[in-house]
Design goal:
Strand order of the largest sheet: 3-4-5-6
Number of strands: 6
Number of helices: 0
Distance between the termini: 17 Å
Helix content: under 10%
Structural class: mainly beta
Length: 106
Amino acid sequence: MWNPWTHVRFENEVVDFWNLKDRKGTVRFSGFNAVENGSVYAGFSALHEHIVFKKDGTEKTAINEVQTVKIYKTQPDDAYYILDITSQLSCAGKVRYCCWNIAMEA
């Protein structure tokens, strides 16, 4: 799972990390920070890198995302689980300013 960032301004270029056919950017799994398995919940924390494909053929990480997922079983006989997802985004590299303008629809 990841966030479908389709219109991100990075270094005066508009980047689409979702529609891969446009070859403007992508999101890559970078590794696990933690994996947990306990009596209350199981889960993991993973790093995703939002990569910009520059016009000169190079790549640059624009956003680092730490995604934390926890899965809880409410009762032993219940046929469902509770899923808790947290996504922490931060600008990669040296940043003069970083501004998030997020619009979400249900």
